[in-house]
Structures are given as C-alpha cells and as structure tokens.
Amino acid sequence: MSGARSGDQGGSPRVAPRAIIVRQTSSRIQNMSCRSRRENRRIFPVPLSSKGVEMALSCSFLVATTSLTLLAPHQTALASPDPVTVMEKLMTPGNGVTTSAKWKFWLRDRPATSTVVLHTTGVLAFGKGRVVAADATRLFKGGRKVRFRVVGGRTYASGGAWSDMLPQGKTWARSSILDYQPYEFTEQDINIFEPTTLRELLKSARSDRGTTTTRYSGSITVKALCAVSPSCRSEYGKKVNADISWQLWTNEKGQVVRLFAKWVLAKTAKNPISSNTEADTSYSGWGSRVSVSVPPANQVAKVD
C-alpha cells in the first residue's frame, strides 16, 4: 500500500402530519365535512365524542397524506448531490484541497512489533480534471518530519535523512528513488480524484444520510479496483490480491470530507506474510486557491 516507502527515508427533512384545527364546537365537528375542516385547520380544545374524534383523525390522515404528496418533489430536490459530478467540477486549474491523513500498517501475526504509523498533512493542487501537484509533510514515529513537493512531474524532499545527505547550503533533495504521484500524499491507494474510480465505488455502495453528511460504505478487491483505476494498475498491476473495505463521507454540497479504507492482505502460497493497512484521510477547503512551486534551484541538490 502507499505510505512509507523506500523513498521516504525518514523512516430530507421529516414531514410531520399537519394537525387539523377546528374552531367549531364538538357537536358541529361531528357534522362537518373533511373539506370544511381542512379549510379551518384548528383543533377546538374541548372533548369530542368518539365519532367526532374518529372523523377528525380520518381527516388528519387525509391532510397529512396530501402534504406528503405535495412535498415529495421538494424532498427529491434535497437529495445528496452526486459526488462524482461535484469532484469533476472542483478539479479546475488553480483550485485545490487541504488533506490530513493517518496511515497505519502492521503484520497480522506481529502487530505489537511491526506497526508503522505516520501522519501526513498538506495541500493538493488541481489542473484540468486531475491532481497536478502536492506539498505535504509526513510525521513519523519519533517526531521525524519529511516535507515533499511534487510539481512538474518531479518529487523533492527536505528533512529527515534527506537533509543529512545534502551538501551545505542545500535544503531540497532530488533522487531517482523520489518518484511520487501527488495523490499519494493522501495516503490512500484509492484515488478518488479519478472519476471512474469514485463512480465504481459508489455504484453499489450502501448510503446513510445524516443531518449534514452522507456516509457511503462498501468493499472492493484490488483486482476490481485496478480494473477501473489507472493509479491502481500503475502501482500494483496483478501483484496484489487483497480485499478493501471502505467508508466515504460527503457534506451537503457533495464534497468528499473523509475516506477510511482498510486493506487486508491474506496469507497465501505466493504471499507468506499477511498484513493490514489502514488509511484515514480528511479533506477540507475544496475550491480554495492552491499553488505549489518548484523549490529554488540554488537550494536543490541531486543525491543518490
């Protein structure tokens, strides 16, 4: 899974039935038509006979049903926006998004001694329909930090072991093993910035709409993911046979605000070690102006 690789070196609102309020006395209520009671819309605060109660409740049901029918188009209009369409509109040159992620990896038979955790914060910059640049900092266990910039197809690193390899006066390193794609600094191997990938996830997902967010959830195999995702094919090809469970949250605008994914790599004849990977990423500031620049040339040195 993505995360610490060798190149890191730093180690509808509810519709309530509308009460019918009647100004007449209980004896008159018993002789009224439902239509006239609907027009009055008052409940007279005196005891009604059983027949009056029955008629009032019957009319209340009719009015409530009518209310539901009339409001149905409005409720449909309030349905959650399509996240894929929203994403496509957001990815325009000059715009970007802020991300914050926690990545965790462990061998399933040795969780106590093999767990690796890192935190990553940064920004992604968009081009037309894609992510073109990233400026992110990874914080490793022990407090070590490495800052990365991916811009113009190149990756630069500063901090951690990379700084130790730099000559005096240089602050950014370039290396053949520094080869990242900007989206990788979300620490997710599910590239939601690919419309085909996001659409594949959502088409069979379960959804649960809350007050301000909608949560989608589901599962997918790496094989199925790579069938639709160029990023997945580039990273894994046919080498990995893992199951991925995921949850994705969107806000009322349809913007993705969080993605949690768990990879389970089972032990097989070809893969003698089973492992788990978890990535929990938050997204904010959609549509904000983001620009990632190349480090000054006089601060960059090539190291191997």
In sequence order, what are the helices and strands, one letter per element?
HHHHEHEEEEHEHEEHHEEEE
Beta fraction: 25-35%
| Strand arrangement across the biggest beta sheet | 5-4-3-2-1-11-10-9-8-7
Helix content: 25-40%
Mean pLDDT: 80
Please give the largest β-sheet. 10 strands, antiparallel
Derived structural class: alpha+beta
| Global geometry | globular
Q: How many β strands by DSSP?
A: 12
Please, how many helices?
9
Low-confidence stretches: 11-77
**CA-based gyration radius:** 29 Å
What's the end-to-end separation, in Å? 24 Å
Detailed description of the structure:
The model is unreliable at 11-77 (pLDDT under 50). This protein has a 10-stranded antiparallel β-sheet with strand order 5-4-3-2-1-11-10-9-8-7. A two-stranded parallel sheet has the order 6-12. A hairpin with a 2-residue loop joins β4 and β5 (154-158). The chain has helices at 26-29, 34-40, 50-77, 83-90, 111-114, 160-164, 195-203, 222-228, 230-235; strands at residues 95-107, 116-126, 131-140, 145-151, 154-158, 172-174, 206-209, 213-221, 242-251, 256-265, 275-289, 300-302. α2 (34-40) packs across α3. The chain has 304 residues and is α+β, with helices and mostly antiparallel strands.
Structure keywords:
304 residues, globular, alpha+beta, 26% helix, two-stranded parallel sheet, 33% strand
How does the SSE layout of this entry go?
Layout: H1 26-29, H2 34-40, H3 50-77, H4 83-90, E1 95-107, H5 111-114, E2 116-126, E3 131-140, E4 145-151, E5 154-158, H6 160-164, E6 172-174, H7 195-203, E7 206-209, E8 213-221, H8 222-228, H9 230-235, E9 242-251, E10 256-265, E11 275-289, E12 300-302
Parallel strand pairs: 6-12
Antiparallel strand pairs: 1-2, 1-11, 2-3, 3-4, 4-5, 7-8, 8-9, 9-10, 10-11
